[in-house]
TrEMBL record:
Compartment(s) where it occurs, according to its Swiss-Prot or TrEMBL record: Membrane
GO molecular function: ATP binding; ATP hydrolysis activity
Protein name per the record: Oligopeptide ABC transporter, ATP-binding protein OppD
Gene Ontology, cellular component aspect: membrane
GO biological process, one term: peptide transport
Keyword Translocase applies: yes
Residues of the Oligopeptide/dipeptide ABC transporter C-terminal domain: 116-172
Gene3D superfamilies, per the entry: P-loop containing nucleotide triphosphate hydrolases (3.40.50.300)
Every ABC transporter domain range: 9-65
Keyword Transport set for record: yes
Organism: human gut metagenome
Entry keyword set: ATP-binding, Cell inner membrane, Cell membrane, Membrane, Nucleotide-binding, Translocase, Transport
One Pfam match: oligo_HPY
Length: 172
């Protein structure tokens, strides 16, 4: 079914094939079943579906999770290109700071459901101000470091149903 578009089945099929082509999936694969696609191809199909209605905003929740590094890079390159081609804004939810560095312009760091730091990618990556953000960057392995252990963030995350007053990170 097409969203807010009146078109015949033939037109819808042609549109679907066009969208699959935009994400690098050949026309001859358009009638295959999901189990016949790799994880990266499934992700491309979902992106094509999301862009088919030409949205002003694309919400991508962990778009590269469970993909190997090579496929992840291809998907990120494709997302960057499609954002430009479709002039679409995107909110990306991810725990992977490498993905953030590759795709995002602005960054919001969330802790216990609250935005605790917001700025351009450069501001947040080069000069984090919140202790949680500093802790995240401190926990990234550095091959050039002589430190043999990662720096964990001490304490436990708060119970979401019983958040402390003020900054939820404060008890840690």
């Amino acid at each position: 079914k097409t969203h807010n578009k009146k078109m015949s089945m033939a037109e819808a099929t042609a549109e679907a094939i066009k969208m699959l082509g935009k994400v690098g999936i050949a026309e001859n694969r358009a009638r295959e079943y999901p189990h016949q696609f790799s994880g990266g191809m499934k992700q491309r199909v979902v992106i094509a579906m999301a862009l088919a209605c030409n949205p002003d905003l694309l919400l991508a929740d962990e778009p590269t999770t469970a993909l190997d590094v090579t496929i992840q890079a291809q998907v990120l390159d494709m997302i960057n290109q499609l954002k430009e081609d479709y002039n679409t804004a995107m909110i990306m939810i991810t725990h992977d700071l490498g993905v953030v560095a590759e795709v995002c312009d602005d960054v919001a760091v969330v802790y216990a459901g609250e935005i605790i730091e917001y700025g351009t990618k450069e501001e947040v990556f080069d000069n984090p101000t919140h202790p949680y953000t500093k802790g995240l960057f401190g926990a990234i392995p550095d091959i050039n470091s002589h430190v043999k252990r990662l720096s964990p963030i001490n304490g436990l995350p708060p119970n979401p149903s019983d958040l402390p007053k003020g900054c939820s990170f404060n008890p840690r």
